[in-house]
Structures are given as structure tokens and as C-alpha cells.
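G.,

No rush on this.
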Amino acid sequence: MKRSLLALAVIVASTAPVFAKYYVIQTMMDRKCSVVDKINTEKPKTPNDLSVVIGINGFDTREEAETHMKNVCKNEQGADTQKK
């Protein structure tokens, strides 16, 4: 299960556009959403580090990413916009 989640995260991260500046990610363990300015492509050290990119594309501005996060993650508790 962990390997398939890791594979999914790597595939999603590698297919994200190179020119996007901001991304909405969701952690797999606690399901919290956040906006980040880069995607961590390193292998997660713990299951808590595993996250997926929400949406097909990145966003040109932080405001666009935050709006998308609020719409997509509105049912998730603890959604935040902290920069990681």
C-alpha cells in the first residue's frame, strides 16, 4: 500500500508543469491542504511526508492556488495556506 501511494505521488509530481510557480498539495496522513512554491521530489522519509499534488496544473500566482485550494479542500478540516 505504501509503495503504491509513493508511486502515485512520484507520478503526479513528475507530470506537473515545469513553469508553474505554486502548487496545492495534500498530505496523505492528515489530509491537510497547503500551497507550496515547489514540489518536494525526494523520497519521503516517513509516511507523514507523503503528499500529492491536487489538480493537474500548477498556478502562476499564489492567489490562484489559494482559491483552488479553498474550493477543492473546503470539506477538509485544517486547510491552511502556509508556505512550506
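When you get to it, here's the other one too:
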Amino acid sequence: MIKIIDFYADWCVPCKQYDDMLPRLTKEYGFELEKVNVEFNKDIADQYEVSGLPTLVVVQDDEIILGTIVGAYPEKRLREKLAEIIGEDLTKYTFEVPKIVEDQKERFL
């Protein structure tokens, strides 16, 4: 299982860029998301050698660090960076939205 650990602080303005994006992406890819506020968890931040915010640490099976992303990125670039770290095409993790059956389409318009 792949987990993204989001190291942030409440005062960090760039960190807020990930507030909506990361839950959506991790849900889409089927990854876990763990948020760690460095103000209250300095020991955990030190363990992962966090030196700037925001920092995303990509972990596999809760023990193997696949990579780290430091700084705030637009969604497209973040997806690219995650794909580079994981080393595979992330589209296999996405779920297709079912198409509306033609005769039911009017109910949703």
C-alpha cells in the first residue's frame, strides 16, 4: 500500500494548496494520506528529515520511503512527480466514472 505523508504547518501558506488536492488525489489513486503538523510532531518531522514545507513523503508498506517532494506544485506537476517517484503510470490507479445510460441522461440534466 502506498501512503503519502503530508508534512505541514498551520502558518505555511503554500501548504494550504494541498488541503483539497491531496485528499482528492489519494482517493483517486487508492493511496493512503497521513497529515503531520510539524509544530506538534517535530520528532516525526526529524525522523523523515523534513527541512522545508510543504513536504510530501511517499512511503510503501509503511517502511520503504520511495521519495520526497518538497514545495507546493500545481496539480499537473504534482501528478508527474508522483509518477516519477512511484516509477509507473498512475493512470492504472484511476477509476473510470461510469457513463450515464442514454435513457437516464435526462434525469441528471
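The chain has one domain: 2-108. The first strand starts at residue 2 and ends at 8.

Enjoy the weekend,
O.
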